[in-house]
C-alpha cells in the first residue's frame, strides 16, 4: 500500500500546482480585463492610453481654500467681495456707562 501511495503523492502534488497556477492566472486576467486592458492589442498607443490617465485640478478648486479678505482687515470671511465693501469693517459703538466712564 505504501508503494501505491508514494506514486500518487507526486501526481496529486502536480495536479495541485497546476490548478493553483490556473486559478490565479485567470484571476489576474479577469482583473486586467476589468480595468480595460486587452492582451491581444499589440500597439503601444493602446497600452499607453489604457495605463496613463491625466488628471487636472481646476482653478475653482485651487481657489476654494483661499481666504477672500486680507488677514486682519476686519472683514468677515463670508463677505462676498471684501474689496468692494464700503464702510468701516467693524462698526461697533457703545454708549457711555459707569464702567467705561465714556472712554474708549
UniProtKB/TrEMBL annotation:
Biological processes per GO annotation: calcium-mediated signaling
Residues spanning the signal sequence: 1-30
GO molecular function: hormone activity
Compartment list: Secreted
Alphabetized UniProt keyword annotations: Disulfide bond, Hormone, Secreted, Signal
Primary residence: secreted
Any one annotated GO CC term: extracellular region
Protein origin, superkingdom: Eukaryota
Annotated Pfam families: RALF
Keyword Disulfide bond on entry: yes
Family per record: Belongs to the plant rapid alkalinization factor (RALF) family.
Protein name according to UniProt: Uncharacterized protein
Protein species of origin: Chenopodium quinoa (Quinoa)
Lineage: Eukaryota, Viridiplantae, Streptophyta, Embryophyta, Tracheophyta
Amino acid at each position: 500500500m505504501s508503494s501505491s501511495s508514494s506514486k500518487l503523492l507526486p501526481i496529486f502534488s502536480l495536479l495541485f500546482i497546476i490548478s493553483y497556477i490556473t486559478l490565479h492566472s485567470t484571476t489576474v486576467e479577469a482583473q486586467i480585463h476589468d480595468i480595460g486592458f486587452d492582451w491581444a492589442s499589440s500597439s503601444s498607443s493602446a497600452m499607453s492610453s489604457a495605463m496613463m490617465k491625466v488628471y487636472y485640478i481646476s482653478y475653482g478648486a485651487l481657489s476654494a481654500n483661499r481666504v477672500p479678505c486680507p488677514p486682519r482687515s476686519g472683514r468677515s470671511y463670508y463677505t462676498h467681495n471684501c474689496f468692494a465693501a464700503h464702510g468701516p469693517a467693524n462698526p461697533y459703538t457703545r454708549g457711555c456707562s459707569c464702567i467705561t466712564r465714556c472712554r474708549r
